[in-house]
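Workshop exercise sheet. Pairs work together: one partner reads the sequence aloud, the other fills in the structure field after running the prediction. Swap roles for the next sheet.
Pair: D.N. / O.F.
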Amino acid sequence: MSYRRTIFSFAFGFLLMSMLPAHAFAAATFEVTGWLPYWRGATSTNDVIPHLGELTEVDLFAYSLKNDGTLRDNAGLDKAPWTTLIADAKAQHVRVVVTVMTSNTSLIHSLLSNTRSRIALESTITNMVKTNGYDGVDIDFEGKAAEDKNYFSTFLKGLYQRMGSKWVMCDIEARTPVDARYYGTTVPPDATIYANDFTQINKYCDRVRFMTYDQQGVDQSLAAAAASSSELYAPVADPLWVKKVIQLAEQSISPSKISIGVPTYGYEYNVTAYAGGQYTYDILDVFNPGYATQIMQQYGVGPPARNIAGEMQLTFPEATSSAPMTLSQQVGALVAATAASAYADALNSHQTFRLLDWPDAQSIAGKASLAQMLGVRGISIFKLDGGEDPNMWTALLGVKGSAFGDGGGPTSGAAAGSTSVSRAPLSRTLTLGSTGEDVRTLQMILNASADTAVAASGPGSSGQETTRFGPATLAAVKAFQSKYGIATAKNPAYGTVGPATRTKLNALLASL
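Structure field:
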């Protein structure tokens, strides 16, 4: 390269960098952000202020879009307690970003398809952010029509240019891979017609927060796997589904911009049990974890159990059941489900019961570990309002600010050939639904012998061990216990890694 060309390239590069927002060069560290809903202003701010040091950014879920393209401040951000939160956040160098939200499909179309109203909206949002001294804006436009994909991209481009050094964050719906979404069915012709252009979003959003929650039955392949094992399966956000969504997104969006949405709320379902261990689910409501405590006290059931998605679950009788179930003196998380299934099998009929499914501190922390494994920028928690599992803050200590991407790559994921996973001896009871590095160690030991292997290929197989104790791991543990005469199908400990099973596993671990 000639001296003249070198000087030109340097000058051009400097000019290009000078046109980018200053925050484009911010240190690449793992981020923990969270939304504070306007409808719980007092509890949200009380919850977050003592923990600002554990957050990179607070997102004030406050502004909604009115029909005339102007903004409505639903929270009253210019008043206490929001003013206290904002001042404290700035003092601790925590970003303050405000959300502008709408789920009105026709409004989005009318505003963005018209050049004049689109530009006016870009200016309105920019002026609101700069006038109030916020660090940026979070765009949460949901329910967009596919015909508005290009209009939305143009809006983001114009907003990004106007915002200058301010941040532009984008909340984007989770996109489930087609083969998982339509598993076992015919893929419709319009399956890949989307309302979001990931390539353009990558260009004009500083962060892309994927709403990886409200999963319900969208991943038919995971639902079918659970049904084949007669497992209850109605997760808010199964890590296996989240992983699929993020890996698909990473094909178009830089991992350094991606944040995984993490829910703190749960769902209540009315479940109908049919003969043969089959279930159908009707969602009733959302709830905060404290509701589960009330149910346990009311029905005398519990404690809750961790399910195969790593979330907590609890079942209890459905009050209006036409054939009220009789609960035995034994209590437990699945006692109502067991009773309903027994009734359905005995009479070849059906019976309903209630199911609560929610993430606790452990499953929330697990999403942070998943984000690090996938090498993305961070996690975004919905919602921070005092209603989440109070142990969440302790579980997230030290997560913020870790080196970006530390968890990525083959050394910490379930990549083939990985040899740097923890091989500490197993020290706790492991059962269906358990998650953690010790589950990966368990799978490694089981995979050392062909007759106890978790899987022949794919997740769980040798070199691709995972941190999730699912049905395949359960079958492998049972094979291991049978092989060494530890337990049989008549033993309550069959399939559970208890003291006797751990002793044998740890003995084999020492020789690996």
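Discussion prompt: The chain has three domains: 26-265+360-395, 272-358, 437-509. What would you look at next?
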